[in-house]
Amino acid sequence: MKRNPDEKWTKADICAHLGDDYDRFSGAIVPPIFQNSLFTRKTKDHGYVYTRVSNPTTEVAEVKIAALEEGEAARCFASGMGAISSAIMYWMSKDSHVVCVRSAYGPTREFLSSYLASFGVEVTFVKAHTTEDIEQALRPNTKLIFLESPSSHIFELQDLKAIADLARSRSIGTLIDNTWATPLYQNPISLGIDMVVHSASKYLGGHSDIIGGVLVGTNEAMDRIMYKERALFGAIMDPHQSWLLLRGLRTLPVRMKAHQESAMKIAAFLEDHPQIERVYYPGLKSHPQYELGARQMTGYSGLLSFLPKGDMQAISDMLPRLRYFEIGPSWGGFESLANGIGIGIESEASEATGIPQGLVRISVGLEEPETLMQDLDQALRSMK
User: Fold this and answer.
1) Which of 135, 188, 331, 361 has the most CB atoms around its CB within 10 Å?
2) Residue 367 DSSP code
């Protein structure tokens, strides 16, 4: 279905129908998988040549996500890191400098600090609790500010509008990982951020069965990346993954509502639990940046973390006692997961990333919240 430029669609409408173009696909309510490598054009040029560059199935997902993020265009990638690395390279030139929040996704930090270092790119990691933290780290050769708000470990927030205004005044690009909030609950482009990236493996896919990434920005930037970084790196999302992503997008609004409601209950439960030192969740009024989050987000997802009372061994022993939470590093799917991201972390790494020693992160899935709270309670009480 195509959208009239003057017509206002809700985000649920976008997820359900935008870009599906039933007439184009012979009335199919679900767009087909164009599982082919090339497109011939003896009699007519349909606008496609090779799936490494573009594909009709992938484009349907891109149309939906661009509209959800209130951006001009989107490009889908074979992984979140494919999208992140391509977006970073878009902004880079010889001897560039990047300012990145310290709590960014681990592979993003490694790409900036290790891989790009061999090309003369320098990076400064900052706490970014205030815009001044970012401003003080800027240099004459700063090309990009990389944000992640909320971050996926300790859920630190950045003032997106203030940072976007600062960057624009210095002709510096801004890029944010918006995976946690999803396009339903935060739209950084509307606050002045240049580009938004998502790991589609998380909430956008929602079923823990795809690996993918999405990048959203201007038409000009996305076209450049489509023909340069994405095509040359061979990083486009394949048609079958795109079809699965479309399936996930159709239920995104109802899934996110359930994730949010359950996570709010569980975060409040943990905050009052005698075996918990601290809970990290932007939806709690006790979060130090709650008011900032309320200004720039319209909701909260299902990922949070907490610091149990007890030594490292006791925390480590507690995790396997969870019955409904599986132990795993990812998040954003239908299943609930626990990950001891702060277990075994050295003090130096803890200081560098802001991840407290002993921190446990949980992804609240679609199970009954009462079941999950009972599970957490029995595991935490076993620490005594």
Assistant:
1) 188
2) S
Task: Let me know the angle formed at the C-alpha of 363 by 360 and 367, rounded to the nearest 5 degrees.
Answer: 130
CA distance 319 to 47: 52
**Tokens read off for 213:** 């990434």
CA-to-CA separations, 165 to 189, 292, 294, 384, in angstroms, rounded: 12, 16, 19, 50
Mean pLDDT, 10 residues at a time, the chain of 384 residues: 70 92 84 91 82 94 97 98 97 95 93 93 93 96 97 94 98 98 98 98 97 98 97 96 97 98 98 97 97 97 97 95 95 97 88 90 98 98 86
- 221 and 90 in contact (C-beta within 8 Å)? yes
Domains of the chain: 11-250 (3.40.640.10), 252-381 (3.90.1150.10)
**Which amino acid makes up residue 231?**
A
Helix axes 239-250, 56-68, angle to 10 degrees: 40
Sheet harboring 360-363: ordered strands across?
Answer: 276-280, 303-308, 360-363, 337-339, 326-327
φ/ψ (deg, to 5) at 135: -60, -40
**The model's pTM:** 0.94
| Closest to 330 (Cα-Cα) out of 106, 78, 113 | 106
Q: Are 240 and 37 in contact (CB under 8 A)?
A: no
The structure tokens 């909701």 sit at: 299
CA 352 to chain centre: 21
- Parallel, antiparallel or unpaired: strands 97-101 and 73-77: unpaired
Torsion-angle region of residue 148: left (phi > 0), alpha (psi -120 to 50) or beta? beta
Q: Which of 210, 301, 296, 305 is nearest to 255 (CA)?
A: 301
Distance of CA 179 to the CA centre of its chain: 1
For residues 304 and 375, what is the distance between their CA atoms, to the nearest angstrom?
A: 16
Residue of 362, 192, 159 lying closest to 270 (CA atoms)? 362
CA atoms within 13 A on the CB side of 3: 20
Residues 6 or more apart whose CB falls under 8 angstroms from that of 318 comprise: 308, 310, 379, 380, 382, 383
